[in-house]
Amino acid sequence: MELPLDHFRLIGVNPSATPEEILRSFQLRLDKTPDEGFTYEALTQRSELLRLTADLLTNNESRKEYDKQVLNGASGLEFSTNREVAGLILLWESGAAKETFKLARQALQPPQTPALGSTRESDLTLLAALTSRDAAIQEQDQRCYANAADFLQEGIQILQRMGKLSDLRKNLEDDLASLLPYRILDFLSRDLNDYESHKKGISLLQNLIIKRGGLEGKNKSEYINFLNQNEFEVFFEQIKPFLTVQEQIDLFSDLYKRGSLEAGFELFIAITAMGFSQKKPEKLFEAKKLIKNLKISGFDSMPLIGCIDLLLADIKQAEARFANSLDENLKNWLNEYEGEELEAICLYCQNWLENEVLQNFRDIDIQDVNLDLWFSQREIQDFIEKIENKSKMVISKPNFSVFGKNLKNTFTKDFSEVDLEENSDVQDGSKLPVPGGIKEDEIDYIDEELPAELILKNKTLEIYNYCNEKYAELKYFCGEFIKNSKLIKDGNLLNKSSYLFYFYTFLIVFFLGIGSSFLRTNFKNNLDKSPDKLTDISEVINDEKNNNEESSDISQAEFNEEYSKNIARNKFISQDINSLNELSPNLEQIQNLLESWLLSKSKFLSGDDQLDISKIVKRNLIMRLKNERERDIKNNITKDIKTEVQDIEFLSQSPSRISVSVKLKYSEKIKNVNGEVVSETIFKPFLKVKYILGFSNKSWKLVDYVSGV
User: Fold this and answer.
1) By the 8 A CB rule, do 380 and 280 touch?
2) Burial (CB count <10 Å: 0-12, 13-18, 19+), residue 673
3) 667 near 682, Cβ under 8 Å?
4) Rounded to an integer, what distance in angstroms lies between the CA atom of residue 523 and that of residue 465?
5) Per-residue burial over 89-108, b = 16 or more CB atoms within 10 Å of its CB, e = otherwise
6) Which end of the chain is more exposed for a tag (fewer CB within 10 A), N or C?
7) If DSSP codes are grouped into helix, strand and coil, which group holds residue 488?
8) Residues 519-532: pLDDT tens digits?
9) SS3 letters for 347-410?
10) pLDDT per residue over 625-665, tens digit each?
11) What is the C-alpha to C-alpha distance for residues 635 and 419, in angstroms, rounded to an integer?
12) Among 302-316, 556-570, 662-676, whose mean pLDDT is lowest?
């Protein structure tokens, strides 16, 4: 056998060593005999090899000859079979543990395998075990933990195959077990392109956690002696940043199914991180459902659920969650923000996302959380609109568009587009418009002091409008369902059951249509039979209000008086503003409606008190506009606003709700009573505004708008 060893290295001296240094090293090597359990024969051969080397290097003639061989490229030494083990021992002692292990392993493989029971087999087996352990230590020092584990595993396999040295094998197994966390770290910290290594690291991590009994460490395993719970938690926090968010979701999902509640909480964090970082609000719903079902003793989930509610624009629910928290410190902290609870909740949510949710993911790098940006994303708005549309028969929650503006303005109650004034519908949750279907505004004017006959008539008209609107929605949804279904292919029914389905669907729609038509006809006849034969409830109530000025609800009497003087002129001008009655209006028709609104708004804020746009604008916007003008009058200012629609596009469209995105060329000048310009604002290149229209009483009206979305 040729070994990668020269005489200088064998005896442990430099090639320039003197004869005295060589003899001294020779004596030290003889005195320091390995005591790991090698046979007498192997140790005797070792001593003989050392003596031969010392004689060669201390003799001038033989050393010169050997130096020439080295200069000519000689790099190894040949050993006879009876001195093979001794040569390997000396190679191991020279610090070449990895090379020695590979050669010893090779010598133990067939056909070189020594005869059973021979001393050579025992010595080679012992040497393989010792060198595998030393090789593993060398690899660990270089932070090559996976390679270290490979050496230990091969050493264990050799001992198992040879059936020897059970105590030494146990030591190797313990070393391998203690090395597992480092192996996992080695595999996972590699480049993601090394797919096989990454996959192996995840598998090892999962097996480790399962054997320990989940993240809680409920089971007693071979790892408990070297990795207690505190050490494991530290290790696990080091591992998480090397996993992607999807890898963590997959890992924690499996562990949660196996009964680990801590894994369930980590799964909640990972799903929340994915939902926020990838703008997937549906994931937040999934996370919310998960955290509600977690039953962790002593764990208060209310603030976390409240944060999810806030991210889904459910402000009332978020505030309720925080109010129901059992954490007294949290309650005391919230009390410091009296009157600004929403600001406090947003700060809490922001800190939670930054410090606990979005950390420790390989593919997420978000340092600063911007809730403004979150709520301004199209994906978020569209998703929340869909949720609102599904529950449009329920009183709606605060609209997410509030968050589309700067949160500072939200906190200071400076809603430039969503005023929280006394008469605003946003102030009272019970009066909020139902997304996807808005009831007629004028019903809000009904007062308890009105005659009973008029109240009954108003209620009748309300039911009539509601039935009319719902019947239109029913026809639309049935038609959309049939059109989008896959029950027809190439103009043919797929099977007999499809035919029956269509038949029953037709019958349902047919009879609902007959019933709705009957109700509409009956209600309309009742209206026609009324003494005053009025069909527009707004005109009835306006007449009542004109005849009973003392019962007016408007706080600014002077403004109300000036406005009442112009009712006749307003009615005349309103003839120029036509209502939009098309069931499915196009963009041009919607643009005409919006331009009428913008022109009327501009005139009114510039000091022209003529305002009657009830045919195209809902009452809440009209009242907001009036309140804005009242404030301007108090401040002795007027506003000169110029707008021009540059672009318009649909965001969503249903039988009862339309939202469009409009790019406006917008400029605004604020003037004092002397006509001097106090300030001027110009949006360049344009101002982006989202407009929302609702269909009721057979016409489309502007319901709300949000700037900067």
Assistant:
1) no
2) exposed
3) yes
4) 10
5) bbbbbbebbbbbbbbbbebb
6) N
7) strand
8) 555 554 554 444 44
9) HHHHHHHHHHHCCCCCCCCCCCCCHHHHHHCHHHHHHHHHHHHHCCCCCCCCCHHHHHCCHHHH
10) 988 998 999 888 999 999 999 999 998 888 788 999 999 99
11) 18
12) 556-570
Tokens of 449: 């002091």
Average pLDDT, the chain: 76
Is the CB of residue 570 less than 8 Å from the CB of residue 611? yes
How far is Cα 354 from Cα 343, in angstroms, rounded to an integer?
A: 17
Residue 531: the pLDDT is 41
pLDDT per residue over 201-242, tens digit each?
Answer: 999 999 988 888 888 888 877 677 778 888 888 889 999 999
The pair of three-digit structure tokens given for residue 134, joined into one six-digit string: 């030393």
Q: pLDDT at residue 69 above 90?
A: no
H runs (alpha helix) in 242-280: 245-257, 261-277
Distances (CA, A) of 455 to 308, 415, 519, 551: 43, 35, 19, 17
Residue 695 in tokens: 């269909």
pTM: 0.50
Average pLDDT over residues 284-312: 91
CB atoms within 10 A of CB 639: 18
Q: Averaged over 98-121, what is the pLDDT?
A: 76
**Cis omega (within 30 of 0) for bond into 451:** no
Distance of alpha carbon 145 from alpha carbon 304, whole angstroms: 39
Asked if 678 contacts 671 with a C-beta cutoff of 8 angstroms, the reply is yes
CA distance 361 to 72: 57
User: CA separation (Å) from 688 to 52, 308, 657, 662?
Assistant: 93, 28, 20, 6
SS3 22: helix
Where helices occur in 485-607 by DSSP H, the ranges are: 496-528, 537-547, 557-565, 567-574, 587-605
What are the tens digits of pLDDT across the range 454-505?
Answer: 444 444 544 554 555 455 445 444 544 444 444 444 444 444 445 555 555 6
Residues 6+ apart with CB under 8 A from 497: none
For 580-616, the pLDDT digits (tens) are 988 889 999 999 999 999 999 999 999 887 788 888 9
Tell me what pLDDT residue 146 has. 86
Mean pLDDT is lowest, of 1-15, 359-373, 660-674, for 1-15
Indicate left, alpha or beta for 327 from its phi (over 0: left) and psi (-120 to 50: alpha): beta
Q: Count of CB atoms within 10 A of residue 371's CB?
A: 17
Largest CA distance in the chain: 140
**326-369 residue pLDDT tens:** 888 888 888 888 778 888 999 999 999 999 999 899 999 888 88
Residue with tokens 């604008």: 617
At residue 210, the 3 state secondary structure works out as helix
Three-state secondary structure call for residue 280: coil
Structure tokens belonging to residue 186: 């080695």
Question: Distance from CA of residue 175 to its chain's centroid?
Answer: 40
d(CA 430, CA 422): 14
pLDDT of residue 453: 45
> In whole angstroms, what is the distance from residue 667 CA to residue 676 CA?
16
Other beta carbons less than 10 A from residue 467's beta carbon: 17
d(CA 174, CA 152): 10
Q: Count other Cβ atoms within 10 Å, centred on residue 508.
A: 12
Instruction: Look at the block and give the residue holding tokens 């004596």.
Output: 27
